[in-house]
Amino acid sequence: xxxxxxxxxxxxxxxxxxxxxxxxxxxxxxxxxxxxxxxxxxxxxxxxxxxxxxxxxxxxxxxxxxxxxxxxxxxxxxxxxxxxxxxxxxxxxxxxxxxxxxxxxxxxxxxxxxxxxxxxxxxxxxxxxxxxxxxxxxxxxxxxxxxxxxxxxxxxxxxxxxxxxxxxxxxxxxxxxxxxxxxxxxxxxxxxxxxxxxxxxxxxxxxxxxxxxxxxxxxxxxxxxxxxxxxxxxxxxxxxxxxxxxxxxxxxxxxxxxxxxxxxxxxxxxxxxxxxxxxxxxxxxxxxxxxxxxxxxxxxxxxxxxxxxxxxxxxxxxxxxxxxxxxxxxxxxxxxxxxxxxxxxxxxxxxxxxxxxxxxxxxxxxxxxxxxxxxxxxxxxxxxxxxxxxxxxxxxxxxxxxxxxxxxxxxxxxxxxxxxxxxxxxxxxxxxxxxxxxxxxxxxxxxxxxxxxxxxxxxxxxxxxxxxxxxxxxxx
Length: 476
What we know:
Elements: E1 2-3, E2 6-7, E3 13-17, E4 24-29, H1 33-50, H2 55-71, H3 73-84, H4 88-109, E5 115-118, E6 128-136, E7 140-143, H5 151-162, E8 167-170, H6 177-189, E9 196-198, H7 203-211, E10 217-221, H8 224-233, E11 238-242, E12 248-251, H9 257-269, E13 281-285, H10 289-300, H11 321-336, E14 340-343, E15 347-348, E16 351-352, E17 355-358, H12 365-368, E18 375-381, H13 384-392, E19 396-397, E20 399-403, H14 407-416, E21 421-424, E22 440-441, E23 444-445, H15 450-456, E24 458-466
Parallel strand pairs: 7-8, 7-10, 8-9, 10-11, 12-13, 12-20, 13-18, 17-18, 20-21
Antiparallel strand pairs: 1-2, 3-4, 5-6, 6-24, 11-23, 14-17, 15-16, 19-22
Helix pairs in contact: 2-4, 2-6, 3-4, 3-6, 4-5, 5-15, 9-10
């Protein structure tokens, strides 16, 4: 593991297995409390360097990281596929997105701008003006999830470096090797020692990431239950939570059904549905519901399961057997409550068949909670307005998709759907890495996306200038 610029081992080896074959593909180590303490102390020391680092140096570091990742792109993509079970095509896209994330962070480092504001709005403030500038906040604790082991971690590391901060990252225990490969790139790029630590750890050791007051911000991506409990324990530090949801889609009667079906096929089943903005609930205006159902079921049946390293594979295994058994229990419960499985609904050797469910009770797990599985529920609605109401009937609010050819309905959806992002004529699974990304309600707090993450990782500071009349320079 990479501890404050040093490669270390511990007394707790962590074997990482390929979800497809079950083979051990590598061994790393769980950090001890002493090693985490060393990382935190290193981050505090390094912050005295990074906080004063000029823009051109931060930009150069990020460009070097991007170049290093681009050079090792195929190696990193193979590691993602091997340890996360992600189809190689998707793993390659994630590696490319990682390069884009780093390059965009370099650009955003150039745009950390402030403002000058007039303060002489009252006679008592005559001669006063204000200068606002953003300053790095300090050491950051980052916790990243298994489903995008590279790029979601980079959404913490890249803006931290761009803004002059330091970071200690806990990668996911199921697939930590990808970010340990990236740690080699960090070292080669010449990032100041201690500015970045990347170290797996168990939850007991990792509690210090949440509770230690030397961290000035906690950035967590993961499950809602865990995230909100972390916020409760985080003390006075800032907290950014990018959590999950049960993303909804509306299909209007005037939409292009073939296009909508194709996008929902991707949005619901990419990486076995193990995506926080995976399509989970689809509300279809009843005039076209029967057509939509027939087309979707036919499209889902064409999804190809197989070896993640096979470029023709659409859907690989789930991350572990626990995820498979959970999914089966939720579908069985939904069926017992009257839902109908139109295709799929069964598991096989680590895989779960892509599943379409009709007539599920809105209170059932497959509708009301985050399934994080290759399943989608569909339901007819009488009107576009009813679809909005049903989509909003959720404790979550991350992103939503709306398929319609009506500008008025698109604007209505934007105004009334209670989520962090409304995607018109595409699935909520859409994301590009510089856009503001995050949710409302139980889905999170704050926004990621490089510019927006930098705002959370910096504090605005005001300098008031009082121009004294007695010392005013005359032009005589």
